[in-house]
Design brief:
The chain is of the alpha/beta class. Helix content is 48%, strand content 13%. Strands 2-10-9-8-7-3-4 form a seven-stranded mixed beta sheet. Belongs to the class-I pyridoxal-phosphate-dependent aminotransferase family.
Length: 448
């Protein structure tokens, strides 16, 4: 009532003119609103809407970088960052990306993309994931939607699972990328786990994995890393992948491949998609969450793709329409620039060849840093078996360091990594590898 009366005062002032002698002057809107606010709040004890909200815990990965940046030491080392760095520790923009930028600069429109994203990008992305001659592409059985990098692709898949398979649960390897659990949990999917990494051997717990897959309810969802498992760097062999595929078919499980490192793992994009190829050859319908952050250095462009292999062309069309509907209230349309960059590179033979050379160069530098770190550790007299450093693959090395040892590295040597002992080999350079090895040897030398 008070607000209505205030409105009538303002209306009368406007109609009769507030500048004439004797006219009633309209109260200011700020005065009216502040008075109304006092009236509405009254004697309520609630002084703020968000006073009960406490601080969120730091992200276990991003928090490492925050601590590193706050450290004033000139000799600090960050081996926690999940982004490629050159041998000077600097971010890299690939030459193929620079050339693609020049080609699209000033000539492309800035309109919204469709909800499914750029059709040309999606088509090229799934060819990279499944192979140019893949039957599922020729038969038009792949639903593909441009996503906000790999994280967004996983979230779309999680929501699709919740919406159309609400009774199902999803299994993750132990350990896995920490955000996987957050994504499916927030999509209200029941989260379970299966054995994957063996701390004793610092390799794959293949027997435990197969046992857990076998004991999972038929028709369960599993998230598998297509290559360069994060955080362990431990991948099944070709023969092991074949056994896994056979058991999954027997159990009628559905696999979501998270492929964030295609090309970046081995330096060969075809080799890095071998797990997906094996599953397709066995007749599986799979999903794939792709990211072009790591392998093209397009971290900030947030460019990825979710693709789902279906039974028929019509089924694929239906599934794609539903994923688009999930995306609509979430972010409506994906970004344009990154899609143009990837599509330009993958569609041009010269640029694609250059990209393949550059991504191999990045993979080779990571392999070299693995060899040097192991060489320095063994050369300094460490009695620990460091063979796993060179056996593992991809950006990350699951070192075997304990949380207490990681804390000691940070406190005494200003070396930053996640507390599970995951070392980002991208942060290792020819300039700091000896220092890193010395520090690791010092905090582990009591071990036998």
């Amino acid at each position: 009532m008070m607000m209505q009366e205030a409105g009538r005062h303002v209306a009368r002032a406007i109609l009769h003119g507030s500048g004439r002698t004797g006219a009633r002057v309209a109260p200011s809107w700020s005065g009216l609103m502040s008075g109304s606010a006092r009236c509405i709040s009254g004697s309520s004890v609630l002084s703020t809407w968000w006073g009960h909200v406490g601080p969120a815990p730091k992200d276990p990965i991003l928090g490492v970088t925050e601590s590193y940046l706050a450290d004033p030491s000139d000799g600090k080392v960050n081996v926690g960052v999940g982004a490629y760095r050159d041998d000077n520790g600097q971010p890299v923009v690939l030459e193929c990306v620079r050339m693609a930028e020049q080609r699209i600069a000033g000539i492309e429109y800035m309109e919204y993309l469709p909800m499914a994203g750029m059709k040309r990008f999606n088509g090229l992305a799934i060819k990279l994931a499944y192979g140019d001659d893949s039957p599922v592409i020729k038969e038009r059985r792949v639903a593909a939607v441009q996503a906000l990098s790999g994280t967004g692709a996983c979230r779309l898949m999680a929501d699709l699972q919740h919406r159309f398979r609400p009774e199902s649960q999803v299994f993750f390897p132990v350990p896995t990328w920490s955000n996987h659990l957050n994504i499916w949990r927030d999509a209200n999917v029941m989260v379970k786990s299966f054995r994957y990494y063996n701390p004793k051997t610092k390799g794959l717990d293949f027997e435990g994995m197969m046992e857990d897959v076998k004991n999972a309810p038929n028709g369960s969802f599993f998230v598998l890393h297509a290559c360069a498992h994060n955080p362990t760097g431990v991948d099944p062999s070709t023969e092991e992948w074949k056994e896994v595929s056979s058991l999954f078919k027997e159990k009628n499980h559905f696999v979501v491949f998270d492929m964030a490192y295609q090309g970046f793992a081995s330096g060969d994009t075809s080799k890095d998609r071998q797990a997906i190829r094996i599953f397709l050859e066995d007749g599986h319908q799979v999903a794939c969450a792709q990211s072009f952050a790591k392998n093209m250095g397009l971290y900030g462009q947030r460019i990825g793709c979710l693709s789902i292999v279906c039974h028929s062309e019509m089924e694929a069309a239906n599934v794609q329409s539903q994923v688009q509907q999930i995306a609509r209230p979430m972010y409506s349309n994906p970004p344009l620039h990154g899609a143009h960059l990837v599509a330009t590179i993958l569609s041009d033979p010269g640029l694609k060849e250059l990209w393949l050379k550059e991504v191999k160069m990045m993979a080779d530098r990571i392999k070299l840093m693995r060899s040097l770190l192991r060489e320095h550790l063994e050369g300094i007299g460490s009695q620990i078996n460091w063979e796993h450093i060179t056996k593992q693959i991809g950006m990350f090395c699951f070192s075997g360091l304990t949380p207490a040892q990681v804390d000691e590295l940070t406190k005494n040597y200003h070396i930053y990594m996640t507390r599970n002992g995951r070392i980002s080999m991208a942060g290792v350079t020819t300039k700091n590898v000896e220092y890193l090895a010395h520090a690791i040897h010092t905090v582990t030398k009591a071990q036998k």
